[in-house]
Amino acid sequence: MNLSDLRAKAPSLAAGMAAADHSPDSQLSQTRHRAALVAGWDIAPGSTVLELGCGQGDMTAVLAEAVGPEGRVVAVDVAEPSYGAPVTLGESEARLAAGPLGPRIDFRFGTDVLDPSVDFPERAFDHVVLAHCSWYFASLGQLRDTLARVRPWARQLWFTEWDLTPASGDQLAHLLAVLIQGQIEAAGSHGQGNVRTPFSREGMLRLLPEAGWTADGSGSVDTEELQDGDWEIAACLNLAVTEERLATLPEAVRQLVLSQVDVLRAIAKPRDNRALAAYSVTAH
User: Fold this and answer.
1) How many other CB atoms sit within 10 Å of the CB of residue 64?
2) Residues of the chain predicted below pLDDT 70
3) Which of 209, 198, 141, 137 is nearest to 165 (CA)?
4) Smallest Cα–Cα separation from 63: which of 155, 149, 130?
5) What is the per-residue pLDDT for 4?
6) What is the pTM of this model?
7) Please, is 67 exposed, middle or buried when counting C-beta atoms within 10 Å of its C-beta (0-12, 13-18, 19+)?
8) Spatial strand order in the sheet of 125-131
9) What residues have CB less than 8 Å from 272, skipping those under 6 apart?
10) Phi, psi at residue 246, to the nearest 5°?
11) In DSSP terms, which residues pair with 43 in a beta bridge?
């Protein structure tokens, strides 16, 4: 399916998501972004796809559209169905399951592919997809082990994540919010936010061969429409206001974080902060 076809379907795909009831414009932007990604990947109708870190199904819906009625998407996430706000993973699953894409999707929440009980036959899938989920991992080691675990199950990897290298000054607030959250996690104060282990594109390319994958290419992805910069800035400032997690940090780290938060407050706009770009990597 080409870019124009998938983008044309983005409004109907977005409307089928439970989160569209709360933020229709944001959902449409997120769906358009994922439609552009999938349109650039070689996922043919009838394909089988394993999606890791599916969350509320933003990418899942687009993948299900791309594989068509004869295809299948197994969407896996370690979180339980009750996770998420204002819409839970379970609520989003129920909405998708009730729609036309439902028969193509097999959601498996509370599932860690590193658990020995989780297994698939060799080459059970044409593709494995990780889209904007790798910073959720507790460590790069956990991500490496996960990529190695799924290596026998699929012939092609499609990966996308935020790019830590800013292209312009108006992306610095998003970058700083990400780095602050990463420092808090690295210092041992763990939470449930979107950012736990931020790493660079170069870090990902170094990791792939360790997990048995060979990169085919990497490119930048436009994120002009996305609101994630605002979301991560708000999450970061909220952490500093509550100070519950900061209280457990070593004092030197806590003061460093608070000083960086002061800088973030000074450079961030009340809204419409430009998000970092993203990048996409393909591997076999």
Assistant:
1) 26
2) 1-4
3) 198
4) 130
5) 66
6) 0.93
7) buried
8) 105-109, 72-77, 48-52, 125-131, 154-162, 278-283, 215-221
9) 230
10) -70, -30
11) none
- 212, two tokens: 């048995």
Q: How far apart are CA 61 and CA 28, in angstroms?
A: 12
Count of residues making up the chain: 284
Q: Which two tokens stand for residue 162?
A: 């935020």
Q: What are phi and psi of 108, to 5 degrees?
A: -135, 90
Query: Which tokens in the block code for residue 131?
Result: 């889209």
For β-strands 48-52 and 72-77, DSSP reports them as parallel
Residue with tokens 């414009």: 25
pLDDT tens digits, residue range 76-126? 999 999 988 888 999 999 999 999 999 999 999 999 999 999 999 999 999
Query: Per residue, what are the HEC states of the chain?
Result: CCHHHHHHHHHHHHHCCHHHHCCHHHHHHHHHHHHHHHHCCCCCCCCEEEEECCCCCHHHHHHHHHHCCCCEEEEEECCCCCCCCCCCHHHHHHHHHCCCCHHHEEEEECCCCCCCCCCCCCCCEEEEEEECCHHHCCCHHHHHHHHHHHHHHEEEEEEEEECCCCCCHHHHHHHHHHHHHHHHHHCCCCCCCCCCCCCCHHHHHHHHHHCCCCEEEEEEECCCCCCHHHHHHHHHHHHHHHCCCHHHCCHHHHHHHHHHHHHHHHHCCCCCCCCCCEEEEEEC
